[in-house]
Specification:
alpha/beta; seven-stranded mixed sheet; 11 helices; 7 strands
């Protein structure tokens, strides 16, 4: 069970990925994924197409989402896995989270215009298939296409992180609310890529403690932005807090993402000391539909 090729963190054009659901399902199948989840940012709209594409490919699929949360002044992402996308409370909560995105995007464009980068908001909009979900990633793609920066890493370092011209702080959902929405929709709440957050040890301990107190159950141990040291650290964290362990590429785009969908190296399997998050679902719940000939 531990060596299952599960990729439980990926993004489609419904948020800030560059591939549609059908292309993602085909890529996952081709890369040997045995269990796939689509986890678009604050967006449920891509799930029906993703599930249909997965079933057509004979690929086991879990409905997911990645909810933006503000904790200790930092944006933290909470992945929800095994959710009911039609749950009223979850849908209402996601609508609330998304409400401030348009204003934030316009303010980001204004900040970039002040240093001479004109048309960034309009450019980002054109690169966002879902105009309700314009993100820093879309601004980054515009800046790269415009020749302002060579790659996404440089874009974020120079323009889109705290203290830089295109950064705008936004108050996302509260941690407790996000976990409650996920649990209410029948899902498992998972802290996404904890190694990315620049918390002090005290702040990180507070994050895990509060997350668990609200009913959070899992943590991403293996993910695209985690290096070997992170995997060791969060293996121990999962054991310390008794959390389920998840793994996923955090795939957005073939050229941008550090890891391709499903192609997490063999050494990135979960430790046998951990309990995988997919142990929560029965074989019947995860059964792939047969591919029709």
């Amino acid at each position: 069970m531990h060596d299952l090729n599960a990729d439980l963190h990926s993004h489609s054009t419904a948020s800030d990925g560059t591939l549609g659901a059908a292309a993602l399902a085909a890529r996952a199948k081709a890369n040997g994924v045995e269990l796939w989840a689509l986890t678009d940012h604050d967006e449920l709209g891509g799930l029906p197409a993703a599930r249909a594409a997965a079933e057509a490919a004979g690929l086991r699929f879990v409905d997911g989402i990645e909810i933006s949360v503000t904790f200790a002044g930092t944006t933290v992402h909470i992945v929800g896995l095994g959710i009911d996308p039609g749950n009223d409370e979850l849908v209402a909560g996601i609508d609330e989270v998304r409400a401030g995105r348009e204003l934030r995007a316009k303010q980001m464009g204004d900040g970039l215009a002040k240093i001479g980068i004109k048309g960034a908001y309009e450019g980002a909009i054109k690169l966002a298939p879902n105009p309700n979900l314009v993100s820093r990633t879309h601004f980054g793609r515009f800046l790269i296409a415009s020749g302002v920066a060579p790659d996404m890493h440089a874009v974020f370092r120079r323009y889109l992180t705290e203290g830089k011209p295109g950064y705008v702080e936004h108050r996302w959902a509260k941690l407790g609310d996000a976990v409650r929405w996920i649990r209410g929709a029948g899902g498992v709440a998972v802290i996404a890529h904890p190694g990315r957050y620049k918390f002090t040890p005290t702040e990180e301990y507070a994050l895990f403690t509060e997350f668990q107190a609200h009913g959070g159950e899992g943590v991403e141990v293996v993910t695209g932005s985690h290096h070997a040291g992170d995997i060791v650290k969060y293996t121990e964290t999962a054991l310390e807090f008794g959390l389920l362990a998840s793994r996923g590429s955090d795939f957005h785009d073939p050229g941008e993402s550090r890891l391709d969908l499903g192609l997490l190296p063999g050494q990135l399997q979960l430790s046998p000391r951990l309990t995988p998050v997919w142990s929560r679902w029965t074989a019947a719940e995860l059964r792939a539909q047969p591919v029709l000939s």
